[in-house]
């Protein structure tokens, strides 16, 4: 296993930056998820690590070796593709054997390794089948087996679960995590699903527009998003963001909405709000930190219920605060109806404040 | 950076319900369907009757063929014409079989060479982005537009200069380029449909670019290669203009040109000519019927794909 | 895996952007890729590029009948002038137009009819389709001889049949009559190529979404309206390509007129290509024939422009 280091990596297509000066280090044995919406550069970054795309600038090291100009075959990596990329004309056995054949291993050795990999993944009974005769989950295992069979230094995975149905996805997620723990493998995992990243990864790298936004443990990314993009991308349902205006009343600071209500800030938050480049401040709150009141309450602000979405154990309520939407989670026993007038109370210790102009998180000075 | 604050109002857009599926109506067969059957019946007769008459004539003696009104069915069915053409011991048969062999040899060789050249080119056009790729590709396609006769004079002079006039080499070289544009176009369509991830997977699995192509892509594109080969073979088998111009010695002629000599030299032996036409059509029709699926694909690929 | 390209704004190009490599550098970088197409390029330059150049060159020369090209004489645009002002050019062009337009029209219409009629499951559909395609795959030479026999002035079966059914009193001499020769050849040409249109349009019909037809049916459209408003718009692209290919094929026809009539009688079936061939290899006037070819060439280029446009429309739609 090996460490992967990206140093100021750039990939351009013409004048477009697909990957824009991305630097990050994946420690030996670490599971890192590259997440972001489609078009954010995560898959391109993975291709650059794999050597499938030519790098435009910067350096990539795998296990201490500069691999910029190495062919994919010389980088000692394995990759699992979104559509599995199983060779349709080869049986499962031959699919698994292919990487070993290409490395000119002896026949007996190949057979031994394939069988042991097949055993680990519980696909021994499928070895003589062709990929099209397999279910999605089985194909997924074969793809994993093909990566596993030759002990690569790094596993690269490109949305390996996105073609599975929801139930299987949850199951494979657990298995992948277990697989990583058992092998102590270095894994770079691309996904657009932040939930996958949060549940599986040691660290997540959130990308957007070719830039690396934040690279940290899922907990830190969730608790301290560095900007509004990360805040809204990580977590489900997304963090509610309400653009407001900071106003001072003597030493007190409040956030004022276009409708006229004001939300007084705690001293800690007031200092943050004053650090903004302008008086445009965006208030962010996760659904679990917001309280809903059916009657006017001190410190709460007025809104109107838009939709009520029961999910079973939690009911999500979308509330319009002026033109912004705030999502609140409630116990299913509480009854609320659409168009009901409600009051929303924010937890001063758990709200996030963002600079409305730069979209960056505001920190206490 | 955008602020994806959820715009809930957009959610109110009504979802369109799928069009209700209806069982096929059990109404009596309408006028349109009868019109369709009429067209098909007419076209079947239009298509088949000339060929039927070719076969009937080929089963007549020369005397029986030259009668008015014609014998609708030969009074005396004879296979003499076929026997004569296919027995190597008489002069006519010897010559005819020589033409047949020449046609076969030229067609098969130009087909094989054509595939060997077209496969890597089509692959490159499908996969790589290199400067001039677009322009090259259109020049390849434009070859389709130019009449054979336009190329005839310069090629004739060139073949003369190369010393290839009256050799099969001249035809093979020409047919090769004949088939290339379409072969490349067609194969490119096949390669476009093979996911690039398969090659990427192979390269990560330790294959070089060429090995990935050879072990993974080539086997997957074999239907395309078959389609291309059939098309090229049939084109070469039927080609007339170049063979007419480039070849002049009797023993070198291919069937289409040979047939003409046959026609003029043997004083309009119509039954014999019909039999020869029939035999000449057999290989391509059999090839076409057996591999019809591929041939149809060869014809329509590209133009129809949206 | 689609290549992730950043579309979102905000990606400010950093100052350290590497200069875009110039064309030469890029070609050098990709030399490996060119190796794949090199054989194709070499062959095509040899057999296509050079002939085009040479044809254009020859069109400005008077060439000697012994084809010793060192003795050719530069005559400027004389060849072109001679061709364009001659009466025969006008007659041949007229024949070519009739030949091309009528053949293309009927081949397309019959092909469309056949495709629509074949576009539903019924017993024997595959066999029927195969039989209809046979004329397209067999040699045009064989087809020409078969039809020549059918049209035979004394023993032709068509003449005999028309007498049998009382259309005429005696067999018609189809190919030796300046009024019937060209139409007779056009029939052969349509016989040979209508199934090409059929197969193209049949493939095109597969792209018409069934749901749309059902929706139209639910909306109350009758058969004709469904055809005109749903099916035809989907066939537009295929039809364009098919018609263009038919036009090109017909402009390039040689075998049928050459074998059946040799351009006769009295030039009634002479079209551009037979004329060029006759000029070059009958009268050995390569210079003149080359000029003729260049004229044809220019017409083809104009058509080629539309051809490429029709073909690439699909490509663009796909990449969007």
Spell out the key features of this protein:
heterotrimer, A: 365 residues, alpha+beta, Rossmann fold, OB fold (Dihydrolipoamide Acetyltransferase, E2P), six-stranded mixed beta sheet, five-stranded antiparallel beta sheet, 20 strands, elongated, B: 306 residues, mainly alpha, MetI-like fold, 14 helices, globular
Please outline the helices and strands.
The complex is a heterotrimer of chains A (about 375), B (about 300) and C (about 325).
Chain A: E1 4-13, E2 16-26, E3 31-35, H1 42-50, E4 57-62, E5 65-66, E6 77-80, H2 92-102, H3 107-121, H4 136-148, E7 154-158, H5 166-183, E8 186-191, H6 194-200, E9 203-208, E10 211-216, H7 218-223, H8 228-233, E11 240-249, E12 252-256, E13 262-264, H9 267-274, E14 280-285, E15 290-293, E16 301-310, E17 315-321, E18 324-330, E19 341-346, E20 352-355
Chain B: H1 31-58, H2 62-65, H3 80-86, H4 91-127, H5 133-142, H6 148-162, H7 168-192, H8 196-204, H9 209-220, H10 222-238, H11 241-246, H12 255-265, H13 270-290, H14 292-300
Helix pairs in contact in B: 1-13, 3-4, 4-7, 4-10, 4-12, 5-7, 7-10, 8-9, 10-14, 12-13
Chain C: H1 23-29, H2 31-58, E1 61-62, E2 73-74, H3 78-85, H4 87-118, H5 125-137, H6 140-150, H7 157-164, H8 181-205, H9 210-218, H10 223-251, H11 255-260, H12 272-282, H13 286-319
Antiparallel strand pairs in C: 1-2
Helix pairs in contact in C: 2-13, 4-8, 4-10, 5-8, 8-10, 9-10, 10-13, 12-13
Walk me through what this model shows.
The complex is a heterotrimer of chains A (365), B (306) and C (320). With 365 residues, chain A is α+β, with helices and mostly antiparallel strands. Chain A has two domains: 224 residues, 3-Layer(aba) Sandwich (Rossmann fold), CATH 3.40.50.300; 116 residues, Beta Barrel (OB fold (Dihydrolipoamide Acetyltransferase, E2P)), CATH 2.40.50. In chain A, 25% of the residues lie in helices and 34% in strands. Chain A contains nine helices and 20 strands. The longest helix of chain A has 18 residues. The radius of gyration of chain A is 25 Å and the shape is elongated. With 306 residues, chain B is mainly α. In chain B, helix 3 packs across helix 4, helix 4 packs across helix 10 and helix 12 packs antiparallel against helix 13. Chain C is mainly α. Chain C has a domain of 185 residues: MetI-like (MetI-like fold), CATH 1.10.3720. Chains B and C meet through helix 1, helix 4, helix 5, helix 6 and helix 7 of B and helix 1, helix 2, helix 4, helix 5 and helix 6 of C.
